[in-house]
């Protein structure tokens, strides 16, 4: 079901879309995930949003470094940093950054 919806959406773009196995890349670069639930305690953040997530609201110390999601939708700062690093590497390999 999700695959057919994704194909329909990407077909509407009119441009090819490259699938990336980002989790494999993250794990290869030392990102050890201890939990895939929320890094921010929903009882400590109004409206259960990552916008107000901070060390005081983490479910465990350094949860932003070991969890994938800050809330039920948004990635943690560590995952964002790893994704940015991956994109920078891809741009450097392609020669577009020169």
TrEMBL record:
It comes from the Bacteria. GO terms for molecular function: hydrolase activity, acting on ester bonds. InterPro entries: SGNH_hydro_sf. This is Lipase.
């Amino acid at each position: 079901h999700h695959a057919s919806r994704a194909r329909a959406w990407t077909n509407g773009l009119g441009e090819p879309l490259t699938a990336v196995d980002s989790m494999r890349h993250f794990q290869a670069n030392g990102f050890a995930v201890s939990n895939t639930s929320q890094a921010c305690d929903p009882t400590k953040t109004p409206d259960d949003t990552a916008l107000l997530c901070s060390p005081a609201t983490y479910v465990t110390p350094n949860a932003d470094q070991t969890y994938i999601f800050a809330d039920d939708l948004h990635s943690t700062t560590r995952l964002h940093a790893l994704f940015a690093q991956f994109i920078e590497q891809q741009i450097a390999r392609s020669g577009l950054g020169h």
